Amino acid sequence: MEAVLSIIIGILEQGFIYGVMALGVYITYRILDFPDLSVDGTFPLGAAVTAMLLTKGTNPYLALLAAIAAGALAGLCTGIIHVKFKVKDLLSGIITMTALYTINLRITGRSNLAFFNENTIFNSGIALWIPQSCRIVVIAILLAIVVKLVMDWYLHTKSGFLLSACGDNKTLVTSLAKDFGKVKIVGLILANALAALSGAILCQQQRFFEISMGTGAIITGLGSVIIGMNIFKHMTFIQGTTAALVGAVVYKGCTALAIALGLPTTDMKLITAVLFLAVLVINSREKGDKRA
Amino acid sequence: MLKLEDINKTYNIGTVNEAKLFADFNLTIEQGDFISVIGSNGSGKTTMLNIICGSLAIDSGRLLSNGNDISRLKEFQRAKFMGRVYQHPDMGTCPSMTILQNMALADNKGKLFGLTMGVNKKRIDFYREELSRLKLGLEDKLEVKVGSLSGGQRQAMALLMSTMTPLEYLILDEHTAALDPKTSEIIMALTDEIVREKQLTTIMVTHNLRHAAEYGNRLLMMHEGQVIMDKKGQQKTETKVDELLDIFNSISVECGN
After folding, report:
1. Which of A83, B2, B155, B200 counts the highest number of beta carbons within 10 A?
2. Which residues does B contribute to its contact with A (CB < 8 Å)?
3. Are A32 and A166 in contact (CB under 8 A)?
4. Could you give the domains of chain A?
């Protein structure tokens, strides 16, 4: 019983941590219809920034903010490459992602960086008010919900309306006397800021940075968003952001199940990829989706 | 006043498909004109609209709006003083957003899209009032997504949205062509009402010769990048659909089809 409980808690932790990234992917994939692969680089970028700052004794919340800023900057790069230099969306992301691999190594100075003795958001400050057994899961859920609420608010502002309009109908954005290229850039900034935040939270939870931790991040993000949209497709009153978070938990649940059934943890990326393929196939069978 | 001066436009320059459409094309559109433009496919009607709106770059020439050169302004910059309704109803609205959100977007044109709430509740009554002019009952469906409306309903909204804020020019790009005959008449009547009320300088491309004869104060027929007929005022009022049809047929005969 206790083993099952610990697996469930583990799934919730991972689900809500990756859920923050899924919220970012929701912006690019679902709202902007932009397959943004930069996430594979910005997720570990957030982790690298956090790891580097924490080993220098920085406040762990400040480290999260720094990660957000770094992710935003990377998103800006992808946006400029795509909008100003007119490089295709997929390629723009790949360029940023590849460049970030080196940048992440430069930030941390090596491919692994552990910090088992430093303060993190999970073992200092308000974390101490929460019973130790459920600290991580409570903080992960709280953070994900705060991000979701901020995003819900943003999507109802004028700027958020314009973002939604940009994914829906670029012509209308032009008709509103706005440059849709700039709107796309804003979307990419937000999405990559969230991906970096997600990487930073994961890094603080596992207390180490590892250069390959971003590989397949976009797959997890896309899989989460698509699963979420499918679960709630007949419940239009459920917000897309909620769906993305729930999708992330389900996605992580599936991978955890595969591990629990006996697959070695080193198979994680393969499981992630196969699961994503399964999601895409099921998704396109169900509705003949042109995007799948 | 909008002036097209010595416009040159050639498609696919330097390839075997090179096609010169406009050679030193000139046109002056007076303040308050409501111009109907007709012409066969490939006559340059839509290209002219795209050049005016800035969605197509010109090879040489100038566009003057009230004396100011606007040739270098990008499409979204020109949109500040131009409104455009497209042939396809999907182009003028956001399908995944509600009627209310669409109205709020259009209402904010030309202003900052910042971090204030997207829908200003104080404006809802005004939106309802505007929507009720369409007589489609949309004022009672504010929370309905525009994507679930019919083509005619969406086109009516597109027309309303594109003319909600102050404009210099209204560009209508075969905006009734994708609609059934009845809806097309409703949209045309509504267009005329809005154009008169807001005194908009309007350029309407249409394939409907009756609409072209019936509406507006000036009529242009285009053929192979040239204006081959330009009737204004009294002359225009006296123009009959049959007459237009005859000219149309004679052009086609000349072309050998």
Report:
1. B155
2. 74-77, 79-80, 83-84, 86, 90-97, 101, 104-106, 108-110, 112-119, 162
3. yes
4. 2-287 (1.10.3470)
Report whether B29 contacts B35 (CB < 8 A): yes
Alpha carbon distance B142, A154 (integer Å): 21
- The whole-angstrom separation of Cα A275 and Cα A63 is 32
Q: Which residue has the tokens 């007929």?
A: B229
Which one of A150, A161, A175 makes the best mutation probe of the B interface by having the most chain B beta carbons within 10 Å?
A175
pLDDT tens across B81-106, in order? 999 999 999 999 999 999 999 999 99
| pTM value surpassing 0.80 | yes
Q: Which helix (H) or strand (E) holds B36?
A: strand B34-39
- Per-residue CA distances from A147 to A41, A142, A196, A267, B164 (Å): 21, 9, 13, 31, 35
CATH class of B2-95+149-255: alpha beta
Q: Read off the amino acid at residue A98.
A: T
* CA B62 from centroid of its chain's CA atoms: 20
Distance CA B48, CA B171 (A): 11
Query: B62, B42 in Cβ contact below 8 A?
Result: no
pLDDT tens string A269-287: 898 899 999 988 988 887 6
Establish whether this prediction's ipTM goes over 0.85. yes
